[in-house]
Design brief:
- The complex is a heterodimer of chains A (about 475) and B (about 500).
- By secondary structure, chain A is mainly α.
- Helices cover about 75% and strands about 0% of the residues of chain A.
- Chain A has 3 domains: about 1-120; about 145-240; about 265-485, no CATH class.
- The longest helix of chain A is centred in the middle third of the chain and has 32 residues, at about 150-180.
- The two termini of chain A are about 20 Å apart.
- With about 500 residues, chain B is mainly alpha-helical.
- Chain B has a domain at about 285-500.
- Helices cover about 70% and strands about 5% of the residues of chain B.
- Chain B has 21 helices and 4 strands.
- In chain B, helix 14 (about 310-330) packs parallel to helix 18 and helix 18 (about 400-410) runs parallel beside helix 20 (about 460-475).
- The relative contact order of chain B is 0.10.
- The chains are: A mainly alpha (about 475), B mainly alpha (about 500).
- Chains A and B meet through helix 17, helix 18 and helix 20 of A and helix 5, helix 6 and helix 7 of B.
Chain lengths: ~475, ~500
Amino acid sequence: MNVIQSFPYIYPELILVAGGLLLVLLDLFISNKRLLGYGAIAVLLLSLLPMNPYTHGAEIFNGMLIIDRFSCFFKIFTVLVMSLIILISQDYKSLMEKYRGEYYSLLVFLAFGMMLMASAANLLMLQLSIELVSLTSYLLVAFNKKDARSSEAALKYYLVGVIASSIMLYGMTYLYGLTGSLSFHDIFSYFRDGTADSVVILVFMLMIMAGLGFKIAMVPFHWWVPDAYEGAPTPITAFLSVGSKAVGFAVLYRTFMMVFPAFYSDWSSLLGVLAIVTMTLGNIVAVSQHNLKRLLAYSSIAHAGYILVGVAIGYTNWAQEAILTYLLTYYLMNLGAFIILIIVSNTLNSDELEDYSGLAQRAPGLAACFALFLLSLTGVPPLAGFFGKYYIFAAAIEAGNSNPFSYWMAVAIAINSVIAAYYYFRVIRQMYLVEPEDMGVIRQPLTLKLALGLMVFFTVTLSLYLSPVAEFIRQTSSMLTWY
Amino acid sequence: MPLLSLMTFIPLAGALVLLGVPKSRTETIKWVGLGFTIIAFILSVIVTLQYVPTQPGFQMQEYYSWIPQIHVNYHLGVDGISVPMILLTGLITMLAGVASWNIKIRVKEYWVLFLFLETGMMGTFACLDLFLFYIFWEIMLVPMYFLIGIWGGPRKEYAAIKFFLYTLAGGVLMLIGFLALYFTSEPHTLSIPLLQSLGQQGKLFAGNNFRFYGLTLPHLVFLALFIGFAIKVPVWPFHTWLPDAHVEAPTPISVILAAVLLKMGGYGFYRISHPILPDAAKHFSWLFLILGIIGIVYGAFVALAQTDFKKMVAYSSVSHMGFILLGMSAFTIEGFIGGYYQMFSHGILTGAMFLLVGVLYDRAHTRDLNAFGGLAAKVPVYTFVLSIMALGSLGLPGMSGFIAEFFTFLGAFPVYREMTMLAVLTIVVTAGYILFMMQRVLLGPLNEKWANMPDINARELLTVVPLIVITIALGVCPSLLLNIINPVMKTMMVAIGPLHP
C-alpha cells in the first residue's frame, strides 16, 4: 500500500504525535503541570478511537508497517499501560515539579514508539522504533537528575542498550547482505524458496535476539535490569517492567514467527533453553533481595522467562493466546505492585523490605492489596496471574505431544513457581507476621488510590468475566504468517 | 435450589459480612463467624440427607458454562465419595469454630480467614471439574498460611511457609497432570465424570508415544497426580511438613488440618487418579503398598519416641494415613472401603485428639508428655474423654478406627499376605504409644504443679462429645457410613477391575 493510502491506518500514531507536540507547546504556558498529565491521558485515550481490533490486516507504507489484530492488541495495551503510568506519576513525590511537562510529553512519544514497534515489518523500521523507545527510556530513567542513583541507572541502561542494539544492527546487516532486502516479507520468501546454512542463520538470529532480549530482560542480556529498576523513578520502573517488556515480546514474537519459520526448530529450542535459564536465574537471585524494587526487578526477569516459553513454542494457538493473556495479567498485577511501592515510598522514602514491617496493621487496605498482587504473581487461583500461568502451562503441555522438550519447560515453570512463592511470601510475611515498628499514617493520594483500585478490581475479578477476555484474545491472535 | 453452591459459598459470604464489622467488636465477630459455620453445617447435613445412595451417578448437580474457550465449566455434584467428606467438613469446621473462642488477638482477621478456608474445603469436595478442583485446592493454602503464621506457636513462620511451599509444589505438578488429561482427551474436557468414563474405556492418551525411561505418558501423569495428592495425605517421604504444621498451628487449625485437609489427598485418589487412570494406578500399586507400609510402621515408631503430645498425634496421623494407601493398593472392594472408612474415622478421632491436646495445653501451657502425670485423679471427666478417644485411635473394637483397619486388612491380606501381616503387627506399636501416652499423662503420681488444674469445661466438652458419639456409632453400626459409600465403591471397582484380572 502506498504512502497516501496508508495514512488512514495510522491515525492512532498521528494523534499521539500531534498530542505530544501540543503538550510540549502547552508546557510553556501552563504552570499547573497536573493538567498536562491529564491532557496526556486524554491524548492516549483519544488514540483508541480509530483503532479496530478486528481489522483484517494490511501492509502499509510499502511494507514498512503491518496493521493486524496482533499489533492492534499491543497498541491498546500500550494505551492502557501508558495512561496508567501517567496517572500514577501525578502524585509521585520524587519528580521535580518543573520538569513534569516534559516528562508527560516524553511518555506520549514513548507510546508512539511502542506502537511503531508493535507493527514494524521491516528491519529498518524495527531498529528505528526500538531506538525511539530506548532513547526515550534512557532519558526517563535519568529523570531524577539530582539523584546519583538515577543517573547511574540510566548510564548502565544506556551502555548495555547501545551494545545490544549494535549487535542487533550488525546481525541485520548480514541478513541484508544475504537476502538483499530489509523487509520481513522478502527475507521470509528468500528463506522459503532458497536454502541457507542453518548454522550461519543461527548466528544472525542470536544477534537479533541480543537486541530484543535486552528489551525483554532475557538472560544473558539482563544485567541492566536490577540497577536500572532500582535507580529509575518508580513509575518508570513500572513502565520498564510492563510496557517496554510487552512490546519487546511483540517484536520478538513477530520477528521470529514471520521471518524465520524455516528455522523454527533452531530458534525454538534456543529460546526454550534461554526461557528456563531466565526464569531460574531471576527467581533464585530474587530470593536474596532486600530492596523491593530489586526484588520485583528479578521477579520480572523470571516472568519474562515464563512468557518466553510461549514464544519458544511459537506457532500454536495456545502459545499465542498464552503470551497475550500472560502479558495482560502481568500488567494488572505488576503495575499494582509498583503502585503500592509508590504509595509507601512517598511517605517512608524507602523501598527496603524491612520498612514494610507490620504494614498489615499500619495500613490494612494497602497491605491486603499488596498481598493480593503478590499472590497473583505467585499464581494463586482465582486471581488474574493464575490464568496467565495456566495458559502458559497449557501451551507447553499441548506442544509436548510433538515436542517433548516442552514438557520439561512445564516442569521448569512448576519448580520455579515454588521458588517464586518463597520470596513473594517473604514480603507477605514482613507485612503480616512482623510487628510494626512505627504506626505512622501512610498518605494515600486520590490518583494513586484510583489506580490501585482499578488494578485490584481487575486482578480479583478477572475470573468472573474471563470468557469475553479469552474470546477477545482468541480473535486477536490470528496466526502471524504469510501462509 | 443450588444447594451445593449455597453450602460452598455461605462461609465466603460470612467472611465478607465480617469484613464490615468493626474489629473492636470481637464478641459479635465470633458469634457471626460461628453462626455461618453452623449454617454451613446444617446445609451439609441437608446434602447428606437428600443424597440417595442407591441411585447411581452424581446427584444435586449444578452446571454452568464458565469459560467455554478453554472448556472450563462450573460443575458441582456429589456422590457417595464426597458426601461423607462434606459432612465431615461441615461438622469439624463448626466444632473448630467453637474451639476458636480462645483466639484473642486479631480476632476479625482470624474469622475472615477461617470462613474463607471453609469455602475452599467445601468446594474441593463438591466440584466435578478439574479446573475448579485446582482453584479450591490452592485457594485453601492462603488462609492456612496466615492461620498458622499469625496465630501459631514459636516456630509458626517456618511451619507456615513450609506447609505452603510443599503443598504448592504438589499442586503445580497436579495442575500439569490435569492439563495432560485435558489435552489427551477427545474432545478436550476437564470434567471429572467425563474423564472417568473416557479413562475407564481406555480412550485417553490415544496415539501418544511419549516415553521417559520406560514410563509412558499415563504413568507420568499418574505420578504427577500422585505426588500432588501424596504431599497432602501426607505419604512418607512427603510428610515432613505435617509435624511442623500440626505442632505450630493453633488448636482449631490443627483440628481442621488433621480432620479435613489431610483427607483431600485421599479424596484425590478416590475421585481423580484411580478412576481416571485405572491402568496406571494398577501399574503403581506396588508404590502404594510400599509407601503405605513404610508410613504405617515409620509413623508408629516415631510417634512412640515423641515427648511432645501434639507431635505424637501428628506422627500417629502419618501412621494412620498409611492405611489408606495400603487399602487402595490391593484393588479389592474391601480395601477401598477400608481406606475410605479410615479417612472418615481418622478425621473424627484425630480431630478429637487435637482438641483434647488443646484443652490440656490451654491449662498447662506445655505439651511435654513427661511434665504431666496423675491427672486422672485431678480431672476425671477429661481423663474419661481422652481415654475413649485414645482407645479409638488405637483401634479398639466397637469404635470406628477398628472397622477401618479391619476392612483394610481384609482387603489387602489376600493380595499381599506378608506385607499386611507387617501392618497388622504394627498395631502393637500403636497400642504402645497410645498407652504410653496415657500412662505418662493420666496415671502415676500427680505432678504437684497441676494440683489446681480445672477440669474440662462445658464449651470444650461441647466440641468433643459429638465426635465421641460419632466414633462409637460408626464402630457399632458401620452401615451408617457403609450404606453411603458401598454402592459407589462397587461401581468403581467394577469399572476399574481387579489388580490381576
